[in-house]
Amino acid sequence: MKQKIARFLALDLGDRRTGLALGDSVTNIVTPIGTINVAKGPALLAALKKVIEENAPDEIVIGLPLNMDDSEGAASKAVREFALQIAQLTNKPIHLHDERLTTFEADSRMSQSGRTHAEKKALRDSLAAAAILEDFLRAHTQPDLQTGESPSDS
Fold first, then answer.
1. For residue 70, is it within any domain?
2. Bridge partners (DSSP) listed for residue 20
3. Most CB within 10 Å of its CB: which of 3, 19, 23, 139?
4. Residue 151 lies inside a defined structural domain of this protein
5. 63 close to 99: Cβ distance less than 8 angstroms
6. Higher pLDDT, 141 or 133
7. Which residue range forms the structural domain that includes residue 82?
């Protein structure tokens, strides 16, 4: 059975910066593509619309900031509300995916890079978006240990 290729855009939404990454469901290769440096609101929606038009993703994955005990706080609620706005704007499927520890992972990836603090700060959000998408793709392509089917087979 031939698998349909789905192209994903991942967002790591922040108060002032949003990290971006692209990937697909066949190769599972994820590439950080940059950061949008505007606060959540109409300006960010306009910037995201342009990114979506330029990159033509089939689906969008947005990091959901859960607390370490799996509960949701004010930040999760704000992301859910913004995700609804993105869905209405784009008419594309939106997936919310646990983003816990993705910034830590991004910092770990850069720790030995030799980059300055400012350079690391500029990359952190797009690397966090890449980590969100990598985790999302891994979770959606791992075969079920009981049936041997991957989630995309069903």
1. yes
2. 11, 34
3. 19
4. no
5. yes
6. 133
7. 7-141
In the chain, the amino acid numbered 60 is: I
Q: Which residue has the tokens 């997936």?
A: 95
74-127 residue pLDDT tens: 999 999 999 999 999 999 999 999 887 666 666 666 666 666 666 666 677 888
Q: What is the DSSP letter of 58?
A: S
What are the beta bridge partners of residue 18? 13, 36
Q: Which amino acid belongs to residue 107?
A: D
Structure pTM? 0.81
10 DSSP 8-state letter = E
CATH of the domain at 85: 3.30.420.140
Contacts of 55 by beta carbon, 8 Å cutoff, 6+ apart = 7, 9, 22, 33
Whether 23 maps to a domain, the answer reads yes
- Structural domain total, the chain: 1
Residue recorded with tokens 């300006």: 43
